[in-house]
Specification:
Order of helices and strands: HHH
Radius of gyration: 31 Å
Structural class: mainly alpha
Number of strands: 0
Distance between the termini: 35 Å
Helix content: over 70%
Number of helices: 3
């Protein structure tokens, strides 16, 4: 009887270790889903930021062109036309530069947020994270 008892105990321990590996692998799908969902949220937040930047740039450009059109209606000579055109061109160049800088900053922030999602999943508690499931 002792021999049978000693045989069953190691097999129970082995099966519990096997179940632990299987539970980690089963949890891998959940962890991947968490990562994908959090990354999607970061992308959506970035898209909202980009849309706001585009809206602000369009609003600023509309105001500048409206002011230029108003000045053109009241212009008194050819020199005024040249000044209005130069001012509008300068404003457009400055606006475009600012737009691209803000757009680049928003995209970098989105990438950092996505990397933070990945880092957070990989640095969870060792027994629950993605890393043990990948090592199993």
């Amino acid at each position: 009887m002792n021999t049978q008892t000693s045989r069953t105990v190691p097999s129970i321990e082995a099966s519990s270790a096997g179940l632990s590996s299987w539970s980690l692998l089963a949890d891998l799908g959940r962890q991947q889903f968490i990562l994908a969902t959090e990354s999607a949220c970061a992308v959506f937040r970035g898209s909202e930021t980009i849309r706001k930047i585009q809206q602000q740039a369009a609003h600023h450009a509309a105001l500048q062109h409206d002011a230029a059109a108003q000045k053109l209606r009241n212009q008194s000579g050819p020199s005024d036309l040249l000044v209005i055109q130069a001012d509008l061109m300068l404003s457009n160049l400055q606006g475009a530069t600012q737009y691209w800088q803000q757009l680049a900053a928003a995209m970098i922030k989105t990438q950092v947020d996505m990397a933070a999602c990945t880092s957070q999943v990989l640095q969870t508690a060792p027994e629950y994270g993605l890393k043990p499931a990948l090592e199993a």
